[in-house]
Amino acid sequence: MGWAAAFYVTGSVSLIWCLIWFSAMHSKPAHHPRISREELQYVENAIRSSGTSSKGPPRIPWKNIATSLPVWAIIICDMGNTWGISLFNAQLPTFMKNIFGFNITMIGFLSALQFLSRYLGGMTISVLSSWILKHGYFSIINTRRVFSAFSQLVPAVMLVGLIHTGCNSVAIVAIICIAFLFNGAVSSGHVINHHDIAPNFSGTLFGINNTFFSIVTLIVPVVTGVLIDGQQTLDQWRKAFWICVPMYVVGEVFFLFFLSGTVQSWNSSEPETPALTPLTTTVDTSEIFPNKHDDPSNKL
Predict the structure, then answer these.
(1) Residue 85 near residue 247, CB atoms below 8 Å
(2) Which of 246, 132, 114 is nearest to 189 (CA)?
(3) pLDDT at residue 55, rounded to an integer
(4) Which of 40, 142, 190, 237 fits a disulfide with 77 by CB distance 3.0 to 4.6 angstroms?
(5) Residue 233: phi, psi to the nearest 5?
(6) What is the three-class DSSP state of 259?
(7) Domain boundaries defined on the chain
(8) For residues 157 and 246, is the Cβ–Cβ distance under 8 A?
């Protein structure tokens, strides 16, 4: 079947996944036919305590979102992260083939290995992050800072190491895997921060974030192509890697300065009900009882 097999297999797996998802997912926890009473109560209590509205879809505060520094902190950090991810996802096969002569089997293995590293890192660090928050060792904002720094700064350092490694293919593969292992910490860093600042609009914020994600994924191959300029040499590829380093660092520094760990005021977008002013009426009794105050007999 050749190349067609790759598309048939992945398409079939995606279709099976969709069928399972549609059969297992429901709009609300209470609608799930197999949820226990204890689990339902636990989920509903968690929703109430998280600040998430249980009412219908709230009005989206677009202006507040567009002018929120914590929102832009997440977006800019993720743009730097996306630059690195896109560089490796889209360009790594070309780099390994033209510089080290890897065949398609080895390239496929390396591509799978980097994602496996990221998956293992993400799962392990997520458990650690939850444990830290549960025991109160760090606040939410400091937890996000720590793991976001791991996810961005470690890959930046690894890229510098990759640039100076030379033609040692084993060392380069190890460096890439370490970078992706720590990059898995995004799941406990800036990515989850949407829910921290606006649980009612976390889906909307994630969608906005992914719009910028898509823009970066369009730019990276173009910039890389201009830098390589048809010259498949290690020196030319180093230029592309050097561009990626400040993307990681600048995005992370911006996030560290402007992130928030608390729910924003605009998370509840319903307009506030104005306070009722007590109605007072002044009655001029002199018009009702004329000469009352002038008659000496009325005085006590």
Answers:
(1) no
(2) 132
(3) 59
(4) 190
(5) -125, 160
(6) coil
(7) 72-263
(8) no
Question: Helix 169-183 vs helix 104-134: angle between axes, to the nearest 10 degrees?
Answer: 30
Closest CA to 204 of 61, 56, 95, 78: 61
Query: How confident is the model at residue 277, as a pLDDT?
Result: 44
Give the integer Cα–Cα distance in Å for 63 and 149: 29
Instruction: Tell which wins on pLDDT, 152 or 92.
Output: 152
Q: pLDDT (tens digit, 9 = 90+) per residue, 119-142?
A: 999 999 999 999 999 999 999 999
Cα–Cα dist 210/224, whole Å: 21
* pLDDT 10s digits, 3-39: 788 889 999 999 999 999 998 888 888 888 888 888 8
Q: Which helix (H) or strand (E) holds 87?
A: helix 69-100
Amino acid residing at 60? I
Cβ-based neighbour number of residue 121 at 10 Å: 24
Q: What is the DSSP string of 236-271?
A: HHHHHHHHHHHHHHHHHHHHHHH---S--GGGS-SP
- Which tokens hold the place of 123? 């799962």
276: Cα within 13 Å, side-chain hemisphere: 3
Confidence grade of residue 149 (pLDDT, cut at 50, 70, 90): very high
* pTM (2 d.p.): 0.78
Instruction: Provide the token pair at 120.
Output: 């293992």
Rounded alpha-carbon distances, angstroms, from residue 32 to 26, 36, 138, 184, 266: 6, 9, 35, 31, 31
Q: Which CATH class is domain 72-263?
A: mainly alpha
Residue bearing tokens 């096969």 = 93
Angle between helices 169-183 and 140-163 in degrees, nearest 10: 170
Per-position DSSP letters for 178-235, written without gaps between them = HHHHHHGGGGGTTTTHHHHH-GGGHHHHHHHHHHHHHHHHHHHHHHHHHHHTT---HH
Nearest CA to 151 out of 130, 124, 171 is that of: 124
Question: HSE of 160 in the Cβ direction (CA atoms, 13 Å)?
Answer: 10
For the beta carbon of residue 79, count every other beta carbon within 10 angstroms: 19
